[in-house]
Structures are given as C-alpha cells and as structure tokens.
From TrEMBL:
PROSITE patterns: ENOYL_COA_HYDRATASE (PS00166)
Keyword set includes Nucleotide-binding: no
Listed SUPFAM superfamilies: ClpP/crotonase
Transmembrane domains' residue ranges: none
Keywords associated with the record: Lyase
Organism: Geomobilimonas luticola
Classification via Pfam families: ECH_1
Similarity comment text for this entry: Belongs to the enoyl-CoA hydratase/isomerase family.
Domain of life of the source: Bacteria
Full protein name: Enoyl-CoA hydratase
InterPro entries: ClpP/crotonase-like_dom_sf (IPR029045), Enoyl-CoA_hyd/isom_CS (IPR018376), Enoyl-CoA_hydra/iso (IPR001753), Enoyl-CoA_hydra_C (IPR014748)
PANTHER family from the UniProt entry: ENOYL-COA HYDRATASE, MITOCHONDRIAL, ENOYL-COA HYDRATASE-RELATED
Length: 256
C-alpha cells in the first residue's frame, strides 16, 4: 500500500493522507517524493479546487525520518535536493487545508505550515524538536513559524524543542481553528467543499497575492492586490457572482 494516499471525497476536493503509521508518518524520502508528485499533479488538475492534507486521526507527522538521516553527511543531504519536494507543495496554486491530529513535529510542523489553513485537534501537538537531535529546522521552520507566530514564540519553540498543544497553537496564531479531535477531518473537508464552490480564479488570485505579499513591501503588495482585484473584473465568474446577488439567487461559477 502507498505511503501517501490520494482520495477525492467530494466534488473539487482532494484528500492527501500520509499513511506510514508504523513510523508516526515520519517523512522519509519516499513519502516526500510521493507528496511532491501528488501536489504537482493536483496543482495542475482543473477539477481539483481545494486540497486537504492529513495524517489521519492519530498522528500528522513526527518529522523527517531520523533513521534515514542519522549517518548522513552534509554532501549526502545536499545531493538529496529535498527542497525540490517541499517546493512542489509551496508553489501549489490550489488552497491547502492541513487537518492536524496528534504530532506535527519537526518536518511535520513544517509540512503543516506549507498549508494555507490549519485546522487542529485540541490534543494536536506542534513542535520543532530538531535541536534535541543535534540539528535545526530545515524545511522552512525558522521562517514560516516566525512569520506565523512572531520572533519570541518561534524562538522559544525552536530553541527549547518544547511542544505546544492544538489549543496553544490556536492562541499563538499557528492554526486557523481548533476543534475536538474527532471533528477535525470532517471540518476540513467541509471547509474544502465550501472553498471548492468559490470562483476558482478569485481563489487562485487570493492565494497568490497573500503569499507573495508577505515578502515584499506593503506598497508593492497593495499594488499587487489592486492589479489582481482589477483582473477579476474580466472573469465571467465576477459577472455571475454580482448578477446572482442582484437577482437573489445562488451563483454558479465556471472558473472562467
Ligand atoms: N523518524 C523516524 N522514525 C520515527 C520518527 C522520526 N521522526 N518518529 C517516530 N518514529 C518511529 C519510532 O522510531 C518508532 O519506531 P519503532 O517502533 O521501530 O521503534 C515508531 O515511529 C513509533 O514511535 P514511538 O514509539 O517513539 O512513539 P511514541 O508515541 O512513544 O512517541 C514521538 C512519539 C514523541 C513523536 C516520538 O516518536 C519522537 O520523539 N519522534 C521523533 C520526533 C522528532 O525528533 N522529529 C524531528 C525529526 S528532525 C526533522 O524533522 C528535521 C526536519 C528537516 C526537514 C528537511 C530535511 C531535509
């Protein structure tokens, strides 16, 4: 059985599920390769409008596979070029919702932070424990965590390697929503269906502008927003959305 499962549970929704329970979904090279392949394909598939990423009800992912790295040297790590696998997820144009139960540790926390929305269980556990095994975050943790929660919370997590619960993660801004553990996946799928029913070009523009805007000046980001906003007035979906509002009916979006 594959270590990364792909399902299509609802119209426009893809569910990507890590499936390596014997190793707490640790991200070995095979898992990362499969994740990248799925995200590349889903990103290019017009039938897919939103992606839910999960590790299932027990564990999201307990990090990069330590057994796979323990005896490696710097050049071995360099030649793996794993940034290409991570990049496939980072550049995916479709919205990604991470449904996090259990451990999101190390590379697992970094994987969750590649998502656009994180829904966590109350007892989820977010952690950057790399320092405890002699290394540091290597898949964006120092940067994405700092952008999400600010310097002081990020430094505390990365330098102490101490976990935070789903509830704490929510209060820090490390997740979008916290729910009872057994409601996480259903809530993520419901939200994904709602996003999948939105006008796809607007969805794509929103994701692109929010992500690109984080790393440029406010003026440039606002200009980017304005251009994307104006562009949407040339979509059929904008005409449909506004006409449907005026006619008091439900819009039907075509992605054009
Ligand atoms: N790597 C490899 N195997 C793992 C990992 C992991 N990260 N996590 C768990 N496993 C394995 C265990 O070895 C164990 O295997 P076995 O049954 O053969 O002994 C099995 O999963 C079950 O685990 P436990 O018995 O330990 O389960 P517990 O419930 O007692 O504990 C924990 C769960 C707390 C999550 C514990 O397993 C743990 O501490 N895991 C390691 C967490 C960690 O340190 N993660 C960070 C790894 S480093 C990293 O992520 C760097 C990211 C950089 C990304 C870019 C890379 C190029």
């Amino acid at each position: 059985m594959s270590e990364v499962m792909l399902e299509h549970p609802a119209d426009g929704v893809a569910l990507v599920r890590l499936n390596r329970p014997e190793a707490k979904n640790a991200l070995n090279l095979a898992v990362r390769q499969q994740l990248a392949e799925h995200f590349r394909a889903l990103g290019a598939d017009p039938a897919v409008r939103c992606i839910v990423l999960t590790g299932g009800g027990e564990c999201f992912a307990a990090g990069a596979d330590i057994k796979d790295m323990a005896d490696k040297g710097a050049i071995d790590m360099l030649l793996r070029n794993v940034q290409l696998y991570w990049q496939a997820i980072a550049v995916c144009p479709k919205p990604i919702i991470a449904a996090v139960n259990g451990y999101a540790w190390g590379g697992g926390c970094e994987l969750a932070m590649h998502a656009d929305i994180i829904i966590a269980g109350e007892n989820a556990s977010f952690c950057q424990p790399e320092i405890k095994v002699g290394i540091m975050p290597g898949a964006g943790g120092t940067q994405r965590l700092t952008r999400a929660v600010g310097k002081f919370q990020a430094m505390k997590m990365i330098l102490t390697g101490k976990p935070v619960s789903g509830r704490e993660a929510f209060s820090m801004g490390l997740c979008s929503e916290v729910l009872p553990d057994d409601e996480v996946q259903a809530a993520a799928l419901k939200m994904a269906s709602a996003i999948a029913a939105m006008p796809p070009i607007a969805v794509a523009q929103i994701k692109e502008v929010v992500l690109a805007g984080q790393d440029i000046s406010l003026d440039a980001a606002i200009m980017l927003e304005r251009k994307a906003f104006q562009l949407l007035f040339d979509t059929e979906d904008q005409k449909e959305g506004m006409q449907a509002f005026i006619e008091k009916r439900k819009p039907v979006y075509k992605g054009r």
